[in-house]
Design goal:
Helix content is about 40%, strand content about 10%. By secondary structure, the protein is of the alpha/beta class. Among the domains are: about 120 residues, Rossmann fold (3-Layer(aba) Sandwich); about 160 residues, P-loop containing nucleotide triphosphate hydrolases (Rossmann fold, 3-Layer(aba) Sandwich), CATH 3.40.50; about 40 residues, Orthogonal Bundle (Arc Repressor Mutant, subunit A). Helix 4 runs parallel beside helix 5. It is flat, with a radius of gyration of 26 Å.
Length: about 475
Amino acid sequence: MAGSDTRLLMLIDEDAPQISAISPVAAHEGFDILTAKTYAAALEMLGAEDGPEVDILLFDGEVAADNAGRFIQQVHELQPDCTILVIGTRNAPEIVFDAMKGGANDYLVKPIRPERLTTALRNSSLVALPRDELLPLSEKLVSILEFGGMVGSEAQFRIALAKAAAASRGNGHVLVEGESGTGKATLMKAIQHTSARAKGPTEMLECAVQRHDMLEGLIFGRESAGTPHDLERQEGVLARCDGGTVMIGSIDALPRELQDSLDAALETGIVRPVGAAHGFKIDVRILASSRVPLEDMVKEGLFSASLYEKLSLTRIVMPALRDRSGDIPALTRFFLAAFAEVEGMKHHSIADSGLSLLEAFDWPGNVRQLQNVLFRACINEQREALTDHSFPHLSALLGDTDRGESRARGLGVLLYKEDGNLRTLAEIEADVIRIAIGQYEGKMSEVARRLGIGRSTLYRKLQELGIDNPG
């Protein structure tokens, strides 16, 4: 359970099966559940003098239709600290935009997967994240499955990618460690996608969102004893992925006794379902992730030393975004380009003041949080260029301190001024020439060749644009 204190979740929905699917997950995460069939009834309860203090409000955006944004605003007027989660379908972007403009925190796609709902509920309690920032959006963007498409040039990140690329050519188990939001799942998918087992069966099992008493059956399977009150027969993920790959997320959350069982299965290659008289052979590759260094857990006796030894033959550490802040400009450009491909979204650029603000924040939620903050800014910003004013929550957290120029100067060409207007062609051209001079260490013949102009033209432009001649 995420926490010991009981909290209140209000669910507005008329879909009985959906209510039945949501309720046990929310209850397991420590929520009492209050239901309302209509938005009018919900507002009446929330506004009553002795009404409930709701921590999370979850509602179906399709029922609200064009009124979703207004309804969310009304809820926040009555209870400003209430977190809003919206349910909808993939093919209704207008509902997403209306809800996000109204102040929704997250958008859950039907049918809601239990692990996705659990993540949303748990993230709602992360006080380290700005309260009103949008939470995970991985369901709306295509996952990167090639190493070449993973953005970043900082040394620690490139080392992680190089080790992952080498691991994809092998057949051994892999352990990926790193904080939440650093891209562990994305990296594991890239390893699997480029491996010899790419066409084999593959599944992801996230330990952190599963009940401990259910994990054994999910992993190893379960045989029915045939009694009236016995659980139905269940095939485990190891059996379903025979000949392929099992990705185990948050293996640090796997109970100690199941660690030993998994270790034995990997040692012998034999899986024995719960209640079965005999086991059977399997051939499975494990790609596991951990939110904490497993070696420390081994030293504390919290994790199997033998299982750690098997998994960590290839150990990859994904750095936190605060340790690769030089990648923020490139990641920002990548996400803005990706958002522009979403139907109904505008193309946005970013001004230097916006990048300076992003670089000054320490990103406790890492790359995932950067993605979500940028998405919310794109939803709300009417101008084409994002500035520091496009990120009011970050500005409030960081204050009015002088953040200086963005480190992106020299790493890329800024097209827009802080007021959202285009820079002049001369300013842009001057930046390109400066970047080229730095890139090719002042070797003017090479600079001219790379820019596709003659040396005489290059020297003329240096004089016209007021650029110091390094030669």
